# Entry
Amino acid sequence: QMVVERKIAAEEGKTRHDYGRDAFIDKIWQWKAESGGTITRQMRRLGNSVDWERERFTMDEGLSNAVKEVFVRLYKEDLIYRGKRLVNWDPKLRTAISDLEVENRESKGSMWHIRYPLADGAKTADGKDYLVVATTRPETVLGDTGVAVNPEDPRYKDLIGKFVILPLVDRRIPIVGDEHADMEKGTGCVKITPAHDFNDYEVGKRHALPMINILTFDGDIRETAEVYDTKGNESDVYSNAIPAEFQKLERFAARKAVVAAIDALGLLDEIKPHDLTVPYGDRGGVVIEPMLTDQWYVRADVLAKPAVEAVENGDIQFVPKQYENMYFSWMRDIQDWCISRQLWWGHRIPAWYDNDGNVYVGRTEDEVRQENNLGADVALRQDEDVLDTWFSSALWTFSTLGWPENTDALRQFHPTSVMVSGFDIIFFWIARMIMMT
# Structure
């Protein structure tokens, strides 16, 4: 998809949205027809000895049917679910990406120290009427719903349960005791923005802090915020208002504007140079934002258990053996796998929604209607997202052999005897093939 998007931008000055979904997908198929043979021509020139009659393409009808079949089966076994969670969001590609698609780059930046006034006349142990929090992303102040201090910190432990008034939006937010706040780091006070930071998201869940999304999918400040409880349900516990001067600002322009506004209020304590690690998308090449979105997930820990055991008991062997350690380290600390992508090219998620927001999963719309007794008067729309390309790739060892049909090829060639691969995709591909087989 990225190749064709760049092509039409360079040649026609258009985006995929100018074409619309169906017409843009037609453009991709056209490009595939023109360029798809390049790989096989190169393989032939290299002298690869393969059975060319068994060539398969990820979007072939047979493979597409296998993908839908696996999705439906896993969903019915409660191994696939849809939830509102924090993901790595690429504002350029406007899609979620996996942790493994994030490049962390060292950078020189700043740490802004900001005063948060204490509410109700409260004072710190040394008599101050404010807390100082430090942040490298001051624009996210607009989404704060708490301040964390270490429960053992003598400077602040008596303030746990009290409140501060958030600058710029006058939001009354609680002071919570959490070990995430390091007494030896910075001021010891940590601003908590559950909708825009992965650590804060976990702190927020522990203390039932609301989540306030302040960014659009393009990475701009929203006109009104989205407020949710910890379960992802819409909430009115806080106002969704965002000051007019920040609305629609690009995120880094908003950073400057927020700092200037805080300084004008006399609440900017100091600015210090700071070495930081900044996450970039490996495809889009822009800074990634933690974003609260609705996505589809695989319960990876359940699938990982037998996959680990298969290597432990020798059913599957890594050569060289040292790469087993890499495999185990990933699999034993595995997180639920976000499998939805906000793209147009790929296997579209086989889920449909009615006007009340109910979700129905099935191989086809007709199947969904029959299984759920939905008449023609019930309008259904299919999920717009597509599956992570590694989802279909994980099925490769059997989807290419005609599964779910019990074909001669499946009986003869599955399970696989030897898989030659680079170590860099052990988790992207190899581990997921083992999990899905």
Q: What stands out?
A: The radius of gyration is 25 Å.
